[in-house]
Design a protein that fits this description.
Blueprint (H helix, E strand, L loop, with lengths): L1 H8 L15 H8 L3 H91 L2 H150 L7 H71 L6 H17 L1
Keywords: Coiled coil
């Protein structure tokens, strides 16, 4: 009964296994949607909650064992005090019985001697056998009473010895139970120490995983920035390609227009020379001169504009081409950084998978690590 009471007083609540329900692809995508910071905080919160609950359970078990040990110590001390009192009572009763028996024996001997003396004189005087028979009866009765009292004292002593033996057996059983409880307490302390060591190892692994997660998050952010820069550069590069093609078309168009204008200028000059030769010795026509001057001025202005546009194209075409080459180099560099980030992400995923395959890893921590791995794989 004592062992049943002790076993029922310190129950250990079994850990419930983490229910793992199969997830569809849509749910996996929804689980992969939060950012790395939120997932890292969830992982750390789960790990910390598991460690705190395990620590609370160990502290409760320790308090229960301490209370049981204290109660058993009190009961053992009480049993030892009762045993000492019982031993003192047995010794006192035994000494008292011995003293009483010795006193009764002496009284019986004195009575027998006095009766022998009293009965001996008449026997000598009278020689009666009846008095001797009476003396024998009295002696027999006294001896029978003394033997009966001695038998009762022996029975009482045997009962006290049996009670003492049962008390000693109970004390020995309780002592053995106390030793077993002390051994269980030592085992529990060693288990608690092992759990603390395991907790320290898990905290160290969590710190390492935290650093790796921070590094992975930084790399993911850097990768996103690189992707954004790459998209911006590609957009700028496509725009520059369009501008370059437009500039080439405009340059070709300007070149053709310049050729056409040069031909028109040459034709106009030839016509002017012909008109000058034809007008030698004839009165001048003021309207013809004004129209010719206006045409010459328009031609000069158009020629100047075309020349300025040609100079602008010649000046900025090389700069635009240099910028295109620089953008191409930046695109190559960003692609190399993207490849490096993908390789580092794969290495981080491999490390997290190795940590998740450790036997001492908790189910909640393993699930969080697998979620982080799935998120990193989704980012790659």
């Amino acid at each position: 009964m004592e062992e049943d009471r002790l076993a029922s007083s310190s129950p250990r609540s079994p850990k419930r296994p983490r229910a793992s329900s199969p997830l569809s692809s849509a749910e996996k995508k929804r689980r992969l949607s939060p950012d790395d910071g939120t997932m890292r905080d969830d992982t750390l919160r789960i790990v910390a909650e598991a460690l705190r609950s395990e620590n609370r359970q160990l502290l409760q078990d320790r308090d229960v064992l301490k209370a049981e040990k204290k109660a058993l110590d009190e009961r053992l001390a009480q049993a030892q005090r009762s045993l000492r009192v019982l031993e003192d009572d047995m010794g006192r009763v035994y000494r008292q019985k011995q003293k009483d028996m010795e006193t009764q024996r002496q009284e019986c001997e004195q009575k027998l001697q006095s009766q022998n003396t009293i009965l001996g004189r008449p026997a000598e005087r009278e020689g009666s056998k009846e008095l001797r028979a009476l003396a024998d009866e009295i002696r027999t009765a006294e001896w029978t009473g003394w033997r009966r009292r001695r038998s009762q004292a022996s029975c009482r002593t045997s009962w006290l010895y049996a009670k003492f033996s049962s008390s000693m057996d109970s004390v020995s059983e309780k002592t053995m139970r106390l030793e077993e409880l002390e051994q269980e307490m030592k085992d529990t302390k060693s288990d608690a120490q092992a759990m603390q060591d395991q907790r320290a190892g898990l905290e160290k692994q969590v710190a390492q995983l935290q650093e790796k997660l921070d590094l992975s998050a930084a790399r993911s952010r850097e990768k996103e920035n690189v992707n954004d820069e790459l998209a911006t550069v590609q957009k700028q590069y496509s725009e520059l390609k369009v501008v370059e093609s437009q500039q080439k078309k405009l340059a070709g168009k300007m070149q053709s227009e310049m050729t056409e204008l040069k031909a028109q200028n040459k034709a106009l000059r030839e016509q002017r020379v012909k008109k000058e030769h034809q007008s030698v010795g004839q009165p001048s026509n003021e309207g013809d001169k004004q129209s010719s001057a206006g045409a010459d001025n328009a031609l000069v202005i158009q020629t100047a504009e075309k020349e300025a546009l040609r100079m602008f194209v010649q000046r900025y075409y090389s700069a635009a081409e240099d910028k295109c080459w620089k953008l191409l180099e930046k695109v190559s560099e960003l692609e190399a950084q993207k490849t490096s980030a993908q390789e580092q992400t794969k290495e981080s995923c491999n490390v997290l998978l190795m940590c998740a395959q450790v036997d001492t890893c908790d189910e909640a921590i393993r699930a969080s690590l697998l979620d982080v791995v799935a998120t990193l794989e989704g980012l790659t």
